[in-house]
């Protein structure tokens, strides 16, 4: 086969790239190793959250935002290496992509998607508050200064819809040839230029969306092209590779982890790109979550779900110690993870009560939010009524990681029993110590003011009307009669995003280690570190992953079309 462009990976970034190219009249072959049921990749499973700046949704809620404030927050989170702003050093391209992305989030992103029929839940959420003292020279410290997480009406599937539709129209017009069950195993080069791909044809598989599929080879094929685009995502399902790349200063990722992405997110295509001469940068930068729970109805291997918590739960390490400020629920997930891996823990705990769970727990992912995903207004209205939303209530009833008790001593006994029954896990929660932690926290809340940083931060969170309505329980002692029983939830590491990847220039062209262009090879989405090999720096602001796929696909697709 031959084409103007081969795009490897039919996730969101690959679809955006391919449809930008076909809109300009280019002939594209789109290859993906999974069955057709998995069209859209990880994005389909997402909550559909987008980082938008100074949006109508924000303004209606009284949020005052600006591109300047967002850029300040970005710099405070990213921690780019010196010289990046001057175009020097390994972060220079990531920095440039980040600057353009923030401008995109404050400018064309919403209007572009809106014109394609995409809409948003009207209440922006406040993910990753940070909570650190602000800096003076390099922007604010990590976290969003204002709520910027906009949930798409229809979640991840609705973000994909216009690009899937465009892909089908391009296929009907003869411009797009989509080949599922084609696994690329190498790039072909001619005189130092990438000129195509070698792929294995895999046997037919009726696997459901996201489920593991076979790797039985039934043939081979080569595709020649003027350009090849890598859009295969990161390494989230490759736990061995993630452990190997994890920055040693933060300890080691544990042997027991959950996966927040399907098995196909294996990182193998990154190695094929490197073998062809592309530079991989910032491989030690990852964005995994410490708030994972085992899915009671798994689709892929080690399938985990992330709890999206409000700020009221106590967060304890494996030995029952509170995590240091500001590592509260919803403030700095990566910082909490680094703290826990530095201790050598494979788990941590949320300690709360029934009322806090019903008010503050939400779950990430399209399948865990049937009201938003299904655009069901009646079901959505139940979020403001007493009681947990349906998916949370199901976990509370079915998950062995949700432990209920009437007293701290009984709760500690159940926590220790779960740890002891888990091979390789360690940690012991002292019953008297747990009772003392809860009593001290409750005394601060009962005072009506309090000096505990988490208690103060929780009260402040209720200043935002959306949090007061949907996300933050009224401050009350955990032992308040009628609010119980007490609850401990075991949390495990949930692998998710790769922040580094193929080093790319401003258009998405892959670069060699010396900074020269590797002709013919391009990268988008997570495979490109969402732009330039690492636009997030060392950590990300929430809602920038889908946005990064959209942005890199649009920029690189249009650059290639030119």
TrEMBL record:
GO molecular function, one term: steroid dehydrogenase activity, acting on the CH-CH group of donors
Family annotation (Pfam families): FAD_binding_2
Keywords noted in UniProt: Flavoprotein, Oxidoreductase
Residues in FAD-dependent oxidoreductase 2 FAD-binding domain copies: 4-546
Record-linked SUPFAM superfamilies: FAD/NAD(P)-binding domain
Matches recorded under NCBIfam families: PRK12834.1 (NF009472)
PANTHER family hit by this protein: 3-KETOSTEROID-DELTA-1-DEHYDROGENASE, KSDD-LIKE STEROID DEHYDROGENASE RV0785
Name of this chain's protein: Fumarate reductase/succinate dehydrogenase flavoprotein domain protein
């Amino acid at each position: 086969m031959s084409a103007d462009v081969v795009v490897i990976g039919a996730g969101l970034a690959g679809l955006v790239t391919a449809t930008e190219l076909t809109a300009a009249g280019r002939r594209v072959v789109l290859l993906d190793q999974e069955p057709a049921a998995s069209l859209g990749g990880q994005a389909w499973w997402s909550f559909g959250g987008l980082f938008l700046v100074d949006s109508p949704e924000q303004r209606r809620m009284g949020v005052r935002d600006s591109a300047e404030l967002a850029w300040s927050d970005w710099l405070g989170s990213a921690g780019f290496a010196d010289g990046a702003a001057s175009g020097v050093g390994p972060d220079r391209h990531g920095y440039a992509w980040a600057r353009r992305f923030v401008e995109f989030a404050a400018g064309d992103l919403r209007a572009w998607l809106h014109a394609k029929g995409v809409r948003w839940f009207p209440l922006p959420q406040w993910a990753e508050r940070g909570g650190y003292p602000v800096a003076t020279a390099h922007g604010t410290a990590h976290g969003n200064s204002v709520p910027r997480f906009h949930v798409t009406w229809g979640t991840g599937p609705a973000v994909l819809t216009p690009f899937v539709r465009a892909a089908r129209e391009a296929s009907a017009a003869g411009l797009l040839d989509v080949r599922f069950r084609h696994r690329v195993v190498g790039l072909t080069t001619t005189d130092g230029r990438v000129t195509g791909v070698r792929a294995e044809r895999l046997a037919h598989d009726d696997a459901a969306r996201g489920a593991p599929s076979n790797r039985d080879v039934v043939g081979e094929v080569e595709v020649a092209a003027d350009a090849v685009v890598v859009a295969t995502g990161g390494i989230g399902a490759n736990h061995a590779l993630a452990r190997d790349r994890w920055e040693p200063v933060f300890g080691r990722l544990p042997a027991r982890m959950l996966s927040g992405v399907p098995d196909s997110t294996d990182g193998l295509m990154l190695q094929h790109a490197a073998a062809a001469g592309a530079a991989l940068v910032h491989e030690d930068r990852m964005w995994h979550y410490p708030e994972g729970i085992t899915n009671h109805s798994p689709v892929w291997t080690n399938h985990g779900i992330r709890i999206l918590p409000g700020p009221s739960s106590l967060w304890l390490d494996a030995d029952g110690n509170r995590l240091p400020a500001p590592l509260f629920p919803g403030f700095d997930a990566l910082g909490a993870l680094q703290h826990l891996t530095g201790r050598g823990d494979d788990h941590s705990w949320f300690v709360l009560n029934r009322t806090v769970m019903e008010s503050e727990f939400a779950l990430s992912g399209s399948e865990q939010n049937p009201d938003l995903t299904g655009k069901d207004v009646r079901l959505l209205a139940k979020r403001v009524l007493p009681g947990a939303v349906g998916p949370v209530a199901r976990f509370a009833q079915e998950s062995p990681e949700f432990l209920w008790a009437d007293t701290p001593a009984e709760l500690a006994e159940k926590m220790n029993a779960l740890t002891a029954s888990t091979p390789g896990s360690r940690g012991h929660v002292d019953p008297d110590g747990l009772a003392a932690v809860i009593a001290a926290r409750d005394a601060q809340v009962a005072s009506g003011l309090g000096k505990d940083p988490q208690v103060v931060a929780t009260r402040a969170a209720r200043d935002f009307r959306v949090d007061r309505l949907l996300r933050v329980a009224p401050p009350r002692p955990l032992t308040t009669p009628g609010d119980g029983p007490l609850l401990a939830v075991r949390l495990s590491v949930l692998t998710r995003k790769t922040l580094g990847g193929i080093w790319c220039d401003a258009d998405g062209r892959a670069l060699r280690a010396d900074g020269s262009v590797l002709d013919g090879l391009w990268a988008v989405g997570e495979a490109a570190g969402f732009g330039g090999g690492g636009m997030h720096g060392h950590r990300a602001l929430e809602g920038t992953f889908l946005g990064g796929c959209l942005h890199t696909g649009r920029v690189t697709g249009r650059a290639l079309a030119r």
